[in-house]
Request: fold
Amino acid sequence: MTATTYIGELFPDLPAPKTKAEKETPLSHFRRFLAVNKEEGGLVFPAQAAYLCGVTNQSICNYINRGRLQTFEFFGKTYLSAREVEELFELKQSGVSPAGGRGKKLGYIGMASATLEGAKSPKKTV
Reply:
């Protein structure tokens, strides 16, 4: 192996680097944005999602990091699916914790909330 070995020789599954002619143009980037926007029922910023769902920006970041909300990158900005944000809002309104905690929670995630009757957390024994 020489210093000029193409990385594709080492990792054949990786796509070859794009040439100047193959790079995405601003128009194709915009068209892809419009297609995803239509498919997802709109795109919103994470801060907008936090406001709409009544949670903090950090809670939205936690959902993203856990894979519960899918992100899209366009124009150097991060967007969320409006459909997924609406589903999150509906879950929160129904009192179910989208975070998947122990039992159903009432109220907002990240805030002190009451646990439904009968759903007790296991106690640690020392």
